[in-house]
Amino acid sequence: MRTLIKNGTVVTSSNEYVADVLIKDEKIVQIGNNIDGTFDKIVDAKGKYILPGGVDQHVHFSFEFNGAKVRGFESSASAAVGGTTTVIEFVNQVKGKGLVDSIEDYRKANADGIASVDYSFHSVMTDPRPEVFEEIPELAKAGYPTMKLFMAYKGMFFHADDDAILKALMIAKDAGITVMVHAENADAIDVLQKQLVAEGKIEPYSHALSRPPIVEAEATRRAIYLAELAEAPLYVVHVSCKEALDEVSKAFNSGLPIKGETCSHYLVLDESNLAKPNFEGAKYVCSPALRTPEHFDALWNGITRGSLNAVSSDHCGFDWKEQKHMGKDDFRNIPNGAPGLQNRLGVLWTYGVEKGKITRSQLVDIYATTPAKNNGLDYCKGTIEIGYDADIVIYDPNCKSIISNKDSLHGVDYCPYEGMEQIGRVEKVFLRGNMTVDEGKFIGKEGQGKLIKGNPFGLMYKL
Ligand SMILES: [Zn+2]
Hints:
Urease, subunit C, domain 1; binds zinc ion; alpha/beta; 12 helices; 463 residues
Protein backbone atom coordinates (compact mmCIF):
# COMPACT_ATOMS: atom_id res chain seq x y z
CA MET A 1 0.00 0.00 0.00
CA ARG A 2 1.51 3.31 -1.13
CA THR A 3 -0.09 6.59 -0.09
CA LEU A 4 1.17 9.96 -1.28
CA ILE A 5 0.36 13.10 0.71
CA LYS A 6 0.99 16.00 -1.66
CA ASN A 7 1.70 19.72 -1.31
CA GLY A 8 1.32 20.07 2.44
CA THR A 9 3.60 21.99 4.77
CA VAL A 10 5.58 19.48 6.83
CA VAL A 11 6.28 20.72 10.35
CA THR A 12 9.03 19.20 12.47
CA SER A 13 10.41 20.35 15.80
CA SER A 14 13.16 22.24 13.98
CA ASN A 15 11.66 23.57 10.73
CA GLU A 16 8.80 23.55 8.23
CA TYR A 17 8.76 23.15 4.45
CA VAL A 18 6.40 22.30 1.61
CA ALA A 19 6.86 18.71 0.46
CA ASP A 20 5.21 15.46 -0.55
CA VAL A 21 5.33 12.57 1.88
CA LEU A 22 5.25 8.99 0.65
CA ILE A 23 3.95 6.27 2.93
CA LYS A 24 4.61 2.62 2.14
CA ASP A 25 2.69 0.23 4.38
CA GLU A 26 3.37 1.44 7.95
CA LYS A 27 6.38 3.69 7.34
CA ILE A 28 7.37 7.03 5.86
CA VAL A 29 9.66 6.08 2.96
CA GLN A 30 10.25 9.29 1.03
CA ILE A 31 9.91 13.05 1.56
CA GLY A 32 10.51 15.44 -1.32
CA ASN A 33 9.04 17.42 -4.17
CA ASN A 34 7.23 15.88 -7.12
CA ILE A 35 7.55 12.26 -6.02
CA ASP A 36 6.80 10.04 -9.04
CA GLY A 37 5.40 6.56 -9.23
CA THR A 38 2.16 4.68 -8.81
CA PHE A 39 0.13 5.11 -5.68
CA ASP A 40 -2.87 3.42 -4.14
CA LYS A 41 -4.06 6.70 -2.68
CA ILE A 42 -3.20 10.37 -3.20
CA VAL A 43 -4.17 12.98 -0.63
CA ASP A 44 -3.86 16.68 -1.50
CA ALA A 45 -2.83 18.68 1.56
CA LYS A 46 -2.32 22.06 -0.11
CA GLY A 47 -2.72 24.89 2.40
CA LYS A 48 -2.63 22.43 5.29
CA TYR A 49 -0.02 21.35 7.79
CA ILE A 50 1.45 17.87 7.99
CA LEU A 51 2.28 17.19 11.62
CA PRO A 52 3.58 14.05 13.29
CA GLY A 53 0.91 12.12 15.18
CA GLY A 54 0.80 13.31 18.77
CA VAL A 55 2.40 11.40 21.62
CA ASP A 56 0.44 11.98 24.82
CA GLN A 57 2.77 10.81 27.56
CA HIS A 58 0.24 11.25 30.37
CA VAL A 59 -3.17 9.59 30.15
CA HIS A 60 -5.34 7.53 32.50
CA PHE A 61 -7.50 4.71 31.22
CA SER A 62 -7.14 2.63 34.37
CA PHE A 63 -7.26 5.15 37.22
CA GLU A 64 -9.56 4.54 40.18
CA PHE A 65 -10.51 7.05 42.82
CA ASN A 66 -12.70 6.07 45.78
CA GLY A 67 -13.94 3.11 43.77
CA ALA A 68 -14.86 5.22 40.72
CA LYS A 69 -13.15 3.96 37.57
CA VAL A 70 -12.30 6.09 34.53
CA ARG A 71 -13.29 5.22 30.95
CA GLY A 72 -10.83 2.73 29.54
CA PHE A 73 -9.04 2.11 26.26
CA GLU A 74 -12.40 1.53 24.54
CA SER A 75 -12.63 5.35 24.51
CA SER A 76 -9.19 5.85 22.95
CA ALA A 77 -10.56 6.78 19.50
CA SER A 78 -10.87 10.22 21.12
CA ALA A 79 -7.06 10.37 20.97
CA ALA A 80 -7.05 9.75 17.22
CA VAL A 81 -9.65 12.40 16.35
CA GLY A 82 -7.67 14.84 18.47
CA GLY A 83 -4.46 14.16 16.52
CA THR A 84 -2.80 11.84 19.03
CA THR A 85 -1.62 8.48 17.72
CA THR A 86 0.33 7.21 20.74
CA VAL A 87 -0.71 7.35 24.39
CA ILE A 88 1.25 6.38 27.47
CA GLU A 89 -0.87 5.05 30.29
CA PHE A 90 0.02 5.04 34.00
CA VAL A 91 -0.63 1.64 35.52
CA ASN A 92 -0.81 1.59 39.30
CA GLN A 93 0.95 -1.41 40.74
CA VAL A 94 -1.56 -3.88 42.18
CA LYS A 95 -0.84 -4.59 45.86
CA GLY A 96 0.99 -7.88 46.22
CA LYS A 97 1.95 -7.97 42.54
CA GLY A 98 5.15 -6.90 40.84
CA LEU A 99 5.60 -3.76 38.75
CA VAL A 100 5.97 -5.56 35.43
CA ASP A 101 3.19 -8.08 36.11
CA SER A 102 0.82 -5.26 37.06
CA ILE A 103 1.37 -3.68 33.66
CA GLU A 104 1.30 -6.93 31.67
CA ASP A 105 -1.90 -8.18 33.31
CA TYR A 106 -3.59 -4.82 32.79
CA ARG A 107 -2.38 -4.62 29.20
CA LYS A 108 -3.62 -8.06 28.18
CA ALA A 109 -7.06 -7.54 29.72
CA ASN A 110 -7.67 -3.88 28.92
CA ALA A 111 -5.52 -2.57 26.06
CA ASP A 112 -4.53 -5.32 23.61
CA GLY A 113 -7.22 -5.68 20.97
CA ILE A 114 -9.11 -2.70 22.38
CA ALA A 115 -6.94 0.40 21.87
CA SER A 116 -7.65 2.56 18.82
CA VAL A 117 -4.19 4.17 18.89
CA ASP A 118 -0.71 2.88 19.73
CA TYR A 119 0.14 2.65 23.41
CA SER A 120 2.85 2.26 25.96
CA PHE A 121 2.95 2.27 29.76
CA HIS A 122 4.48 3.89 32.81
CA SER A 123 4.72 1.93 36.02
CA VAL A 124 3.39 3.52 39.22
CA MET A 125 4.86 2.05 42.38
CA THR A 126 2.21 1.71 45.10
CA ASP A 127 3.42 -1.27 47.11
CA PRO A 128 7.05 -0.57 48.03
CA ARG A 129 8.19 -3.90 49.45
CA PRO A 130 11.99 -4.46 49.34
CA GLU A 131 11.64 -6.95 46.48
CA VAL A 132 9.67 -4.36 44.50
CA PHE A 133 12.63 -1.95 44.63
CA GLU A 134 14.84 -4.77 43.42
CA GLU A 135 12.45 -5.30 40.54
CA ILE A 136 12.76 -1.73 39.20
CA PRO A 137 15.52 -2.60 36.64
CA GLU A 138 13.22 -5.27 35.17
CA LEU A 139 11.00 -2.48 33.85
CA ALA A 140 13.75 -1.57 31.39
CA LYS A 141 13.95 -5.13 30.06
CA ALA A 142 10.16 -5.29 29.73
CA GLY A 143 10.09 -2.12 27.60
CA TYR A 144 8.58 0.21 30.21
CA PRO A 145 11.48 2.51 31.13
CA THR A 146 9.60 4.99 33.32
CA MET A 147 8.16 4.86 36.82
CA LYS A 148 6.03 7.34 38.72
CA LEU A 149 5.74 7.91 42.43
CA PHE A 150 2.86 9.75 44.08
CA MET A 151 3.97 12.28 46.68
CA ALA A 152 0.29 13.27 47.07
CA TYR A 153 -2.87 11.39 48.14
CA LYS A 154 -2.25 10.58 51.80
CA GLY A 155 -4.10 7.46 52.91
CA MET A 156 -5.43 6.79 49.44
CA PHE A 157 -2.76 5.28 47.26
CA PHE A 158 0.69 4.67 48.59
CA HIS A 159 2.12 8.14 48.85
CA ALA A 160 5.84 7.91 48.48
CA ASP A 161 7.88 9.28 51.37
CA ASP A 162 11.45 10.52 51.04
CA ASP A 163 12.79 7.08 51.86
CA ALA A 164 10.97 5.48 48.92
CA ILE A 165 11.77 8.29 46.49
CA LEU A 166 15.48 8.26 47.29
CA LYS A 167 15.77 4.46 47.07
CA ALA A 168 13.81 4.37 43.81
CA LEU A 169 16.01 7.06 42.27
CA MET A 170 19.20 5.27 43.32
CA ILE A 171 18.13 1.94 41.86
CA ALA A 172 16.43 3.32 38.74
CA LYS A 173 19.39 5.31 37.46
CA ASP A 174 21.67 2.38 36.73
CA ALA A 175 18.94 0.74 34.67
CA GLY A 176 18.09 3.90 32.72
CA ILE A 177 14.60 4.14 34.22
CA THR A 178 13.27 7.69 34.39
CA VAL A 179 11.62 8.37 37.74
CA MET A 180 8.64 10.69 37.59
CA VAL A 181 6.95 12.33 40.55
CA HIS A 182 3.49 13.70 41.19
CA ALA A 183 4.83 16.43 43.42
CA GLU A 184 2.45 17.71 46.08
CA ASN A 185 2.97 17.59 49.84
CA ALA A 186 0.45 14.97 50.98
CA ASP A 187 0.63 15.86 54.67
CA ALA A 188 0.13 19.58 54.10
CA ILE A 189 -2.88 18.88 51.87
CA ASP A 190 -4.33 16.57 54.50
CA VAL A 191 -4.07 19.25 57.20
CA LEU A 192 -5.66 21.89 54.95
CA GLN A 193 -8.44 19.57 53.80
CA LYS A 194 -9.42 18.66 57.37
CA GLN A 195 -9.41 22.34 58.36
CA LEU A 196 -11.65 23.31 55.44
CA VAL A 197 -14.14 20.53 56.11
CA ALA A 198 -14.24 21.45 59.82
CA GLU A 199 -15.17 24.98 58.75
CA GLY A 200 -17.97 23.62 56.58
CA LYS A 201 -16.17 24.48 53.36
CA ILE A 202 -17.14 21.35 51.45
CA GLU A 203 -17.67 22.75 47.91
CA PRO A 204 -15.44 21.95 44.90
CA TYR A 205 -13.63 25.30 45.23
CA SER A 206 -12.09 24.06 48.47
CA HIS A 207 -10.11 21.62 46.33
CA ALA A 208 -8.01 24.57 45.14
CA LEU A 209 -7.75 26.04 48.66
CA SER A 210 -6.46 22.74 50.00
CA ARG A 211 -3.71 22.46 47.37
CA PRO A 212 -2.15 25.91 46.94
CA PRO A 213 0.94 26.35 44.76
CA ILE A 214 3.26 26.16 47.76
CA VAL A 215 2.38 22.51 48.46
CA GLU A 216 3.36 21.68 44.90
CA ALA A 217 6.51 23.82 45.03
CA GLU A 218 7.66 22.27 48.30
CA ALA A 219 7.32 18.70 47.03
CA THR A 220 8.95 19.63 43.73
CA ARG A 221 11.93 21.14 45.51
CA ARG A 222 12.22 18.17 47.86
CA ALA A 223 12.11 15.66 45.01
CA ILE A 224 14.78 17.67 43.18
CA TYR A 225 17.08 17.60 46.23
CA LEU A 226 16.58 13.85 46.51
CA ALA A 227 17.41 13.41 42.82
CA GLU A 228 20.52 15.53 43.28
CA LEU A 229 21.51 13.38 46.24
CA ALA A 230 20.97 10.20 44.22
CA GLU A 231 22.70 11.77 41.19
CA ALA A 232 19.73 10.64 39.13
CA PRO A 233 17.53 12.31 36.53
CA LEU A 234 14.03 13.31 37.58
CA TYR A 235 10.90 14.18 35.64
CA VAL A 236 8.14 16.23 37.27
CA VAL A 237 4.71 15.48 35.83
CA HIS A 238 1.94 18.05 35.48
CA VAL A 239 3.69 21.19 36.70
CA SER A 240 0.80 23.61 37.23
CA CYS A 241 2.20 26.80 38.76
CA LYS A 242 5.00 29.33 38.64
CA GLU A 243 6.38 28.34 42.05
CA ALA A 244 6.92 24.69 41.11
CA LEU A 245 8.18 25.66 37.67
CA ASP A 246 10.77 27.96 39.28
CA GLU A 247 12.16 24.97 41.19
CA VAL A 248 12.40 22.88 38.00
CA SER A 249 13.97 25.75 36.04
CA LYS A 250 16.50 26.50 38.77
CA ALA A 251 17.54 22.83 38.87
CA PHE A 252 17.77 22.52 35.11
CA ASN A 253 19.64 25.80 34.73
CA SER A 254 22.19 24.66 37.30
CA GLY A 255 22.98 21.67 35.10
CA LEU A 256 20.89 18.94 36.71
CA PRO A 257 19.02 16.47 34.44
CA ILE A 258 15.63 17.62 35.70
CA LYS A 259 12.65 18.70 33.64
CA GLY A 260 8.91 18.60 33.73
CA GLU A 261 5.74 18.66 31.70
CA THR A 262 2.62 20.74 32.00
CA CYS A 263 -0.88 19.93 30.77
CA SER A 264 -3.24 21.68 28.38
CA HIS A 265 -5.70 22.64 31.11
CA TYR A 266 -3.08 24.48 33.20
CA LEU A 267 -2.39 26.73 30.18
CA VAL A 268 -5.96 27.88 29.56
CA LEU A 269 -8.33 27.00 32.44
CA ASP A 270 -8.17 28.87 35.74
CA GLU A 271 -9.39 28.12 39.24
CA SER A 272 -12.51 30.29 38.92
CA ASN A 273 -14.03 27.27 37.13
CA LEU A 274 -14.03 25.44 40.46
CA ALA A 275 -16.45 28.05 41.82
CA LYS A 276 -19.10 27.40 39.15
CA PRO A 277 -22.56 26.94 40.69
CA ASN A 278 -24.69 23.78 40.85
CA PHE A 279 -21.68 21.55 41.45
CA GLU A 280 -20.36 22.30 37.95
CA GLY A 281 -17.07 23.16 39.67
CA ALA A 282 -16.51 19.45 40.27
CA LYS A 283 -15.84 19.03 36.56
CA TYR A 284 -12.59 20.93 37.09
CA VAL A 285 -11.32 19.01 40.11
CA CYS A 286 -7.94 17.62 39.13
CA SER A 287 -4.60 17.50 40.91
CA PRO A 288 -2.66 19.69 41.09
CA ALA A 289 -5.55 22.15 41.16
CA LEU A 290 -6.22 24.75 38.48
CA ARG A 291 -4.47 28.05 39.26
CA THR A 292 -5.15 31.76 38.82
CA PRO A 293 -4.60 33.18 35.29
CA GLU A 294 -1.24 34.77 36.26
CA HIS A 295 0.29 31.31 36.02
CA PHE A 296 -0.53 30.83 32.34
CA ASP A 297 2.27 33.03 31.02
CA ALA A 298 4.81 31.58 33.41
CA LEU A 299 4.01 28.10 32.07
CA TRP A 300 4.22 29.22 28.42
CA ASN A 301 7.61 30.74 29.26
CA GLY A 302 8.63 27.46 30.88
CA ILE A 303 7.83 25.77 27.59
CA THR A 304 9.74 28.19 25.38
CA ARG A 305 12.75 28.13 27.73
CA GLY A 306 12.75 24.35 27.77
CA SER A 307 12.30 23.47 31.43
CA LEU A 308 8.85 22.15 30.56
CA ASN A 309 9.51 19.90 27.57
CA ALA A 310 6.07 18.39 26.95
CA VAL A 311 2.38 19.22 27.20
CA SER A 312 0.17 16.28 28.08
CA SER A 313 -3.56 15.91 28.61
CA ASP A 314 -3.54 14.03 31.95
CA HIS A 315 -6.77 12.68 30.48
CA CYS A 316 -8.89 11.11 33.18
CA GLY A 317 -12.43 10.27 32.08
CA PHE A 318 -14.73 10.46 35.10
CA ASP A 319 -18.40 11.24 34.52
CA TRP A 320 -19.81 14.30 36.20
CA LYS A 321 -23.33 13.06 36.90
CA GLU A 322 -22.52 9.79 38.59
CA GLN A 323 -18.89 9.80 39.57
CA LYS A 324 -18.04 13.43 40.37
CA HIS A 325 -21.21 13.62 42.46
CA MET A 326 -19.69 11.20 44.97
CA GLY A 327 -18.18 14.36 46.42
CA LYS A 328 -21.40 16.38 46.58
CA ASP A 329 -21.14 16.69 50.37
CA ASP A 330 -17.36 16.62 50.70
CA PHE A 331 -14.97 17.86 48.02
CA ARG A 332 -12.41 15.28 49.15
CA ASN A 333 -14.55 12.54 47.61
CA ILE A 334 -14.75 14.10 44.15
CA PRO A 335 -12.72 11.85 41.84
CA ASN A 336 -9.62 13.80 40.79
CA GLY A 337 -9.13 14.20 37.06
CA ALA A 338 -10.71 15.59 33.92
CA PRO A 339 -10.93 14.44 30.29
CA GLY A 340 -8.98 16.28 27.60
CA LEU A 341 -7.22 13.74 25.38
CA GLN A 342 -9.13 14.89 22.29
CA ASN A 343 -8.48 18.59 22.88
CA ARG A 344 -4.71 18.76 23.41
CA LEU A 345 -3.65 19.67 19.87
CA GLY A 346 -6.59 22.03 19.27
CA VAL A 347 -5.94 23.88 22.53
CA LEU A 348 -2.19 24.17 21.87
CA TRP A 349 -2.78 25.37 18.33
CA THR A 350 -5.48 27.88 19.23
CA TYR A 351 -4.10 29.29 22.48
CA GLY A 352 -0.41 28.65 21.81
CA VAL A 353 0.37 29.05 18.11
CA GLU A 354 -2.45 31.42 17.14
CA LYS A 355 -1.81 33.63 20.18
CA GLY A 356 1.91 33.81 19.44
CA LYS A 357 3.01 31.99 22.60
CA ILE A 358 4.77 29.20 20.68
CA THR A 359 5.73 28.48 17.08
CA ARG A 360 4.35 25.56 15.09
CA SER A 361 7.70 23.80 15.47
CA GLN A 362 7.57 24.29 19.23
CA LEU A 363 4.09 22.82 19.21
CA VAL A 364 5.31 19.73 17.35
CA ASP A 365 8.17 19.45 19.81
CA ILE A 366 6.05 19.50 22.98
CA TYR A 367 3.13 17.42 21.73
CA ALA A 368 4.97 14.72 19.76
CA THR A 369 8.75 14.82 19.32
CA THR A 370 10.00 15.31 22.87
CA PRO A 371 7.36 13.14 24.58
CA ALA A 372 8.58 10.32 22.30
CA LYS A 373 12.18 11.02 23.35
CA ASN A 374 11.35 11.27 27.05
CA ASN A 375 9.93 7.77 26.96
CA GLY A 376 12.38 6.02 24.64
CA LEU A 377 9.90 5.79 21.76
CA ASP A 378 11.85 8.04 19.42
CA TYR A 379 13.16 5.14 17.36
CA CYS A 380 9.76 5.06 15.60
CA LYS A 381 7.49 7.83 16.92
CA GLY A 382 7.24 11.59 17.20
CA THR A 383 8.53 13.06 13.95
CA ILE A 384 8.07 13.10 10.18
CA GLU A 385 11.24 11.49 8.93
CA ILE A 386 12.11 8.66 6.60
CA GLY A 387 11.98 5.33 8.41
CA TYR A 388 9.60 6.51 11.09
CA ASP A 389 6.09 5.17 11.62
CA ALA A 390 3.65 6.91 9.29
CA ASP A 391 1.72 8.52 12.14
CA ILE A 392 0.60 11.72 10.45
CA VAL A 393 -1.92 14.46 11.15
CA ILE A 394 -3.21 16.74 8.42
CA TYR A 395 -4.25 19.93 10.17
CA ASP A 396 -6.46 22.45 8.41
CA PRO A 397 -5.72 25.88 9.92
CA ASN A 398 -8.65 27.56 8.17
CA CYS A 399 -11.49 26.13 10.26
CA LYS A 400 -13.05 27.71 13.30
CA SER A 401 -15.32 25.89 15.72
CA ILE A 402 -16.59 25.90 19.26
CA ILE A 403 -15.45 23.00 21.41
CA SER A 404 -18.40 20.89 22.47
CA ASN A 405 -18.77 17.60 24.26
CA LYS A 406 -21.15 16.39 21.58
CA ASP A 407 -18.11 16.13 19.27
CA SER A 408 -16.10 14.14 21.81
CA LEU A 409 -15.47 10.41 21.57
CA HIS A 410 -14.15 10.10 25.13
CA GLY A 411 -17.39 8.64 26.45
CA VAL A 412 -17.56 11.13 29.33
CA ASP A 413 -20.60 13.33 29.98
CA TYR A 414 -18.73 16.64 29.84
CA CYS A 415 -15.72 18.42 28.36
CA PRO A 416 -13.79 20.95 30.47
CA TYR A 417 -13.15 23.11 27.38
CA GLU A 418 -16.86 23.33 26.50
CA GLY A 419 -17.74 26.56 24.69
CA MET A 420 -14.15 27.64 23.97
CA GLU A 421 -13.13 28.60 20.46
CA GLN A 422 -10.87 26.33 18.45
CA ILE A 423 -8.95 27.46 15.40
CA GLY A 424 -8.11 24.80 12.87
CA ARG A 425 -9.07 21.17 12.98
CA VAL A 426 -7.63 17.71 12.72
CA GLU A 427 -8.79 16.76 9.24
CA LYS A 428 -7.05 13.46 8.61
CA VAL A 429 -4.97 11.14 10.75
CA PHE A 430 -2.84 8.20 9.67
CA LEU A 431 -1.85 5.56 12.21
CA ARG A 432 1.11 3.57 10.87
CA GLY A 433 -0.02 4.37 7.35
CA ASN A 434 -3.72 3.59 7.81
CA MET A 435 -6.08 6.50 7.47
CA THR A 436 -7.94 6.40 10.74
CA VAL A 437 -9.56 9.86 10.76
CA ASP A 438 -11.08 11.47 7.68
CA GLU A 439 -12.95 14.80 7.58
CA GLY A 440 -12.54 14.87 11.35
CA LYS A 441 -14.40 11.58 11.80
CA PHE A 442 -12.97 8.37 13.22
CA ILE A 443 -12.94 5.71 10.51
CA GLY A 444 -10.47 3.31 12.15
CA LYS A 445 -11.14 0.13 14.07
CA GLU A 446 -11.17 -0.60 17.76
CA GLY A 447 -8.14 -2.74 18.51
CA GLN A 448 -5.97 -1.32 15.73
CA GLY A 449 -3.51 0.17 18.24
CA LYS A 450 -0.40 -1.75 19.08
CA LEU A 451 1.98 -1.91 22.00
CA ILE A 452 5.11 0.19 21.48
CA LYS A 453 7.93 -0.64 23.86
CA GLY A 454 10.25 2.06 25.12
CA ASN A 455 14.03 1.99 25.30
CA PRO A 456 15.71 2.78 28.63
CA PHE A 457 18.05 5.77 29.07
CA GLY A 458 15.53 8.19 27.52
CA LEU A 459 16.03 11.89 27.00
CA MET A 460 16.49 12.69 30.69
CA TYR A 461 19.68 10.62 30.64
CA LYS A 462 21.05 12.60 27.68
CA LEU A 463 20.77 16.11 29.13
ZN1 LIG B 1 -2.18 12.00 35.93
